[in-house]
Amino acid sequence: MYDHEEGNGKNLVKKLLPRILKAAFKSIIAFVLIYLIPSLLLQDDFLPAEYKLSMNIFAVIIILFIVIVELTSGTIFQYIFSFLRVIVLIVFFICTLGRGSITVTIEMLYIAVDLSIILAMLIFVELLGLAKTVLGAVHFLSQKNEKHFNS
After folding, report:
1. Structural domain that includes position 51
2. pTM for the whole thing?
3. Residue 147 sits in the same domain as residue 77
């Protein structure tokens, strides 16, 4: 009986290790691209403090969902978390950009920028991702259903 349990443990490690390594690799790449490079290129006083925080939160959201989606790949949970990622990002963009305009005060200079078109494009791209996720989930479930009926 012990050998059977040990075999299951080895199979679990063989199954999870590639997912863990892939999640770690993708999250490191995302960290470098989304957080490290912009932090090195932008001076400390380039962005106002509230937008620096938003940039950090964005990086955390992306990296967290990369890890979760990779660890759940091959299951329906992959699509559930992908769907949740899209919803979280849409809410994040709306909360961060408000109505699509941002205001920055630099010393005595007050700057207002209308980003409503960019906000609309971000939401549209996320909605395309949502459609892709739903179609992927439908395909996944149809494949599972087909295997169930064929066996």
Report:
1. 1-63
2. 0.79
3. yes
